[in-house]
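User: Here's a protein and a ligand (flavin mononucleotide). What would the complex look like?
Assistant: Let me lay out the input and then the predicted complex.
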Amino acid sequence: MAPDMAVTVGGLAMRNPFTVASGTFGSGREYAALWASRPELVCPIPGKPLSCLGALTTKGVSPQPWAGNDGCRMAETASGVLNAIGLQNPGVEDFCAHDLGWLADQGTPVIVNVCGHSLDQYVQVVERLEESPAAAYEINISCPNVDCGGLSFGVDPKLAAKVVAACRAATRRPLIVKLTPNVTAIADIARAAAEAGADALSLINTVAGLAVDVRRRRLVFDRGVAGLSGPAVKPIALHAVHRVHQAVALPLIGLGGIACLDDVLEFLLAGATAVGVGTANFTDPVIVPRLVGELERWCLDNGVKAVGELTGAAG
Amino acid sequence: MSPPPAATGGLSRDHDPRPDGGQNHDPRQGDRKPTVWSGGSDKSGGLPTGAQTDGSKDGPRLEDATVIDHRSLAPGVFRLRLAAPQIAARAQPGQFVHLRPPGPGPYPLRRPLGFYAADPDSGLVELVYQVVGRGTAALSQVAQGRISLLGPLGRGWRPPDALGRALLVGGGLGVVPLVPLAAQLVRDGRFEVEVVLGARSVAGLIGRDDLTALLGAERVHLVTDDGALGPAQPVTVPAARLLAAGGWDYVATCGPEAMQRLVAQAAEAAGAACEVSLERPMGCGLGVCLSCVVQTDRGRQRACVEGPVWPSRQVVWQ
Ligand SMILES: Cc1cc2nc3c(=O)[nH]c(=O)nc-3n(C[C@H](O)[C@H](O)[C@H](O)COP(=O)(O)OP(=O)(O)OC[C@H]3O[C@@H](n4cnc5c(N)ncnc54)[C@H](O)[C@@H]3O)c2cc1C
Ligand SMILES: Cc1cc2nc3c(=O)[nH]c(=O)nc-3n(C[C@H](O)[C@H](O)[C@H](O)COP(=O)(O)O)c2cc1C
Ligand code: FES
């Protein structure tokens, strides 16, 4: 019998445990077009390739347009990627006008990633989206690439709790809080978010990193710091997921360096209920539909009746 | 672009550092037809509009291309001929592929490489690249097998509709996207085309033989930094001299950004429409990650979607 691949993440029902990492998938149009060109892709809703996702997580959306960072924005490392995009986005109005309507019709629930420079800005975005077809919010308090807001909220349990409580007051939709690994005790932040009303947590955002241009004797990125993602960060992400799974009862979306089926299984077994695929979309732009199929096959072959059985099973 | 790009560039002089000495010869290499771009004369430059819709007819394809031939053209410079019918059918001059470096890596990012040629009839594409780091070094070791390509990507050259004279100015490997452009312009027959190529040394004058076959030696101006062919000077000097003489309607340039900027200034001063092709580090290649932005007079645009080719007047040079 076909295994039950559905999971529920803080009230958000997902057809399978897969979402994509915010900022690596845009609003899905480009990948939808590419997936549609693959004859081997079988999706649950014919003609809607994104329906093979459990949920789609959008790029970060702020109240006003953000220009993002100047200078170099991306570099490769030995087995990762450093980015300093700086949350460039056209703002919530433009997002609602151009992306959300289309997205909401693609047969997959939409998690809107929310960013802000201040507590009020997060709330503004959530309030603006309340009448929209967004299925859930992912509150990004963990971006290392912007000066104010972002990461500064995610490294302090009190500030994290404030942002979460303010967003909580603005919505009854599933509220996912995205955590940074750039802290000493991630479980403290997780607990603070849980107590302030988060329905689920996603982790990890990128790891703070730096690159130096030896030839020009200067830092590669204008702000110095950039965010590391890709295979290089997977052990850090797994450790974070495992710790947080022990510390709080909330469902977790695990992400950071997922690039193959074993990676997915590791995250689930370490405590994640769902997983996000980010940088690997750049390496292999059809990886997500492939992993969806591979995970189902693996469950079938290994006698797993419901994928949820795997969550935290590694102890 | 058609017939592929056979036997370009003085094959007999090529050295081949690979262990097999380049045994996987392409049977076509005997025919010395110049590179021709038969990708259609469509002025849209092959807009990958499909990337913006969910239509599946247009837009980029992910294709496992088969290596047909791979050889060194000069020290550290290679020409890779691949069978990639879906991509060859859609490629336009100035567009590029995002290539996944082969081997264990891991290489989290693909590498953008411009088309040197593409032929929808034979399904072949040609890339010409320089080894600059670990991705291109790994690529240069490949003798056979398959390589994953994503493409065609970006917006290519869009020469004006008018009749006239076109000057193409290439610095180093910047010549790559100019070769299929030259072929297209010649085929369309609207422009009289001349080319200025610059490189450090004569060996680095990639594309010279193909362009000479296409345009005639008198229309291909060569210059090197080492002075082997006359005065030692950057390509911008003869380009500016030609432009200052006037009579040009269209200028296309690719190479180091500082060089392109100087060419653009000279072209604009001479009253010619000028297009430049800019490089940025790229993540997705599809328009989602915003790592490849270029400052333009209409805000930040993506080199992988709105570029890599822009009218020079739109670029806000950094
Ligand atoms: C649209 C476009 C077309 C191009 N066409 C050609 C071509 O036809 N022939 C050719 O030889 N080169 C071309 N380049 C440059 C080529 O992409 C780089 O030389 C190549 O990516 C270097 O990879 P590497 O792994 O050897 O170098 P590394 O330095 O190890 O690469 C590390 C990272 O930096 C990126 N990177 C390094 N240099 C560049 C660069 N100049 N532009 C963009 N990203 C870079 C790499 O892609 C990789 O992600 C093009 C670049 C762009 C943007
Ligand atoms: C180019 C890029 C842009 C990103 N933008 C965002 C963003 O807007 N909001 C956010 O919460 N995380 C963002 N991230 C972080 C990812 O969502 C993810 O947490 C991180 O990359 C780790 O996953 P990965 O290793 O699978 O990429 C971005 C990452 C990359 C590489
Ligand atoms: S490379 Fe991702 S937007 Fe251009």
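Summary: Residues B 282-285, 287-292, 302, 304 surround FE2/S2 (inorganic) cluster (ligand 3) (CB under 6 Å).
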